[in-house]
Amino acid sequence: MPHGVAHQLIASHLVDGEMTPGEEIALRIDQTLTQDATGTLVMQELESLGLDRAQTEVSVQYVDHNLLQADEKNAEDHAYLRSASRRFGLWYSQPGNGVSHPTHMQRFGKPGKTMIGSDSHTPACGSLGMLAIGVGGLEVALAITGQPLSIRMPEIWGVELTGELPPWCSAKDVILEMLRRHGTKGGTNRIIEYHGPGLAGLTAMDRHVITNMGAELGATTSVFPADDEVRRFLAGEGREDDFTELLAEEGTEYDVTEHIELSELEPLIAQPSSPGNVVPVREVAGTPVGQVVIGSSANPGLRDFAIAARMVEGRQTHPGVSFDINPTSRPILADLTRWGGTTSLIQAGARLHQSGCLGCIGMGQAPAPGTNSLRTFPRNFPGRSGGGADDQVWLCSPETAAASALRGEITDPRELAEELGLTWGDLDLPEPTVIPGMLEEPPPAEEARDEELVKGPNISGLPEFEPFPDAFEVPVLLAVGDDISTDDISPAGAEALPFRSNIPALARFAFTRIDPDYPANAEEIKDSTGHAIVGGANYGQGSSREHAAICPRWLGLRVVIAESFARIHWQNLANFGILALEFTGEGDRDKVPQGSTLSFSDLHEQLQKGSEVVGQVDGTELTFRHQLSDRQVRMVLAGGLIRQLAEGES
């Protein structure tokens, strides 16, 4: 039977299990990626696991999220991360080098390899024919020690691309079209594999845009073949020897199929406040705009900045618009400058920021209240921008962003091109710049063992959690709606993220966008009863940050009951000994309101016996279900994976 790219990647790294959708499998991992917002916990976990030297082919620690140094906290963590990278044998990318995903793609991406990262946009490297999956930090730590990754075998969703993109449409419109069709849950438990003749018109960086935002569909990952375009990309980075052709075999059949005729696409935009809330730009044209930001891992390539520079060249952006440019790496900024685009942007009124995630993670560039902010970013969840829960963030292509910056209102770039006589065509971009020594290579093992870990006072260490009880009675402290994101649970932004290495301090921010009193109420009963949380569909969508599990756990969270869970957060809950249950009947969610009391008994036996769990809500019996494997059940009962490993269990 012919196999596609995703199937070949999984088969070549399969350690255990059967490749049947829904069954748990274990995969050998070649590379890992960590960034500073999640990496500090990973390094603490490596300490707890007693690691001597990284066992992967390549592991890299990037500093790209928490770049603002308003006080000593972020700088403390950067020093700790560098020392831990040297001690454990990881490459280190210092602040200002660039966003982790495109930088990793440029320097380390390699067709045919597997990679996991403690960042949900890790699938971006699928653009090169890699199996790249976003996971929780603890799973990355285990992979660095040489352990395989355990996941449920996804379905393979084959998306055939035909035709060519029309003028003033780009790769961002392709992934926005997928989100328009399927929303933020359409890719759950699926790998999206792109194929077809339409690939010929998409560069490797175009493909990066598409695979990066596959995370917003809820997909396990997205992959493209390693074809001649990937060879060309690697050659431009001075790494053609890293190329290995990896193509779908002729006659490949997929579990699920989709077709996109690229020539029929038009400029699209995601309205506030979900990446799945997509409409044509023409339908919202004329909406006033106060901020436009170009950059992020979702539009990282030189072409994305260059097209904006070409559009604003010789013109001034609207005086009521803050036009912000976030270069995604030092080499891309160097190339843009060499080409002349940096000057064009600055002369047009752009504010040039350092290379990094910045506004994408709410670390600066917060919009004013009530101001529409157009961004070429991957996410626009409420409050993520740092502008408050009522922020108005829209997601669009660089073409739509630049056109809107000139007009001061949402503008279809096709309309502006006709008005100004703009031409569409080859930008004649320079060959990529490679900066030797930009990333710090780990020292030899014998030297690394003498490396002292640099820990400032804001690094608290990992909390220790007790085993999961066999019976308990807890109040439902919080009941929330559908599509609760990890930004809702553990907020990003300049106020909270500097405490990412200090769990007790960071826990004070948990759920405060929804209920400001939650942390205080939870801490009051954490040592007596603990508590439960009830959610709706797609609970825990978005970022992979395991802080969204560990902070509520520190506050006494025992169980989350929801209609469905996002994959990464569901796994993170198990990793830290929190029981994730699902409602079984229509209307059952309404039977467990905030303030009700949940009680369970004989939980150990129930969890080990099957998928159903019976509890009581204010004395009335109700049946729930779980989707944990036997391995995960043992993990939860032990009180989490770290305690389980410390006690020598498996």
TrEMBL record:
Pfam family, one: Aconitase_C
Chain ranges of the Aconitase A/isopropylmalate dehydratase small subunit swivel domain: 516-584
Residue ranges crossing the lipid bilayer per the database entry: none
Domain of life, per lineage: Bacteria
Signal peptide range: none
Keywords: Iron, Iron-sulfur, Metal-binding
Aconitase/3-isopropylmalate dehydratase large subunit alpha/beta/alpha domain mapped to chain residues: 11-408
UniProt protein name: Aconitate hydratase
